[in-house]
């Protein structure tokens, strides 16, 4: 990192400016943390040792860089952590979609533009404004794009506490927000870490469809629907498929029941608004998309991460969990000979589920 003359900068005043500039750039909160993460490193290592990361081998491969910012970016003294809300205005209707088995539920964060580029761009602009005061300084911008313990750093920067569901929670904004960071060599004043306010509440643990929150503050990603529908590239374990319901990309149940989210505000960012009706689309319609349609309609969206094959796999599971209507059975049969063995396997399972349900239902005639 580039060294600067620290005697010529009023860092208290600069931090006040950084918060002001952050607000102008669309961030709802900005804080500063130090780089000491010893306890969080121990928690991370124990989590990895338990195998809770599943097939996310990169979590272990990065070693200490995730919990030691100066190892990832030499010279780092502070981390500027910024929060940007993403909840679309229709967030209140999420349960209506989840409870309609013929509709597809997409995690609310993924309904609009992929947040990575937007946050990185805003953080870079923030860094440029800082440089206007300090001159060139050492820094690097991150948005869920490198081995960064963003929730621990956000907590230490005073943006919120880590809840029992392992997400960051704010008393003022709940949990519907993205985080981004600027690693810097500027000796900025640090904020007081946020204190925890989950109390005795266990709603997030109780609501988890697959019981992935195995204990307070401990998530087994191998059971998490977000992992199963996004990160996992192979076959979804059969015993977990019925528990997924109609959630085809991620899961928000633990956030939807959290009492603190009554304070969440709708995002002012037009880029985060739902696209292509994906906040409540019919499963059979999405299952009919060709690969080109999938690529065209998810351009610039986080949904791209699952890939077309994963998209069809996930929807097949959701269709198998719905009532076996003629339209659903026809949709599944249309892909029974799909080119992908992964898709064929999940379609075959879904058709068996439809057959089982039909056999268990008395003939109304």
UniProtKB/TrEMBL annotation:
Domain 4Fe-4S ferredoxin-type: 186-218
Annotated positions binding [4Fe-4S] cluster 2: 208, 224, 251, 254
Protein name: Epoxyqueuosine reductase
Subunit structure: Monomer.
Cofactor binding notes: Binds 2 [4Fe-4S] clusters per monomer.
Residues that hold [4Fe-4S] cluster 1 according to the record: 198, 201, 204, 258
Pathway: tRNA modification; tRNA-queuosine biosynthesis
Matches recorded under InterPro entries: 4Fe4S_Fe-S-bd (IPR017896), 4Fe4S_Fe_S_CS (IPR017900), QueG (IPR004453), QueG_DUF1730 (IPR013542)
Cofactor(s) it depends on: cob(II)alamin; [4Fe-4S] cluster
EC category: oxidoreductase
Residue sites binding cob(II)alamin per the record: 66, 144, 168, 179, 226, 251-252
Residues forming the catalytic site: 144
Entry keywords, A to Z: 4Fe-4S, Cobalamin, Cobalt, Cytoplasm, Iron, Iron-sulfur, Metal-binding, Oxidoreductase, Queuosine biosynthesis, tRNA processing
Superkingdom as given in the UniProt entry: Bacteria
Lineage: Bacteria, Pseudomonadati, Pseudomonadota, Gammaproteobacteria, Lysobacterales
Enzyme nomenclature, EC number: 1.17.99.6
One Pfam family cited in the UniProt record for this chain: QueG_DUF1730
Family: Belongs to the QueG family.
Organism: Dokdonella soli
Reactions listed under catalytic activity: epoxyqueuosine(34) in tRNA + AH2 = queuosine(34) in tRNA + A + H2O
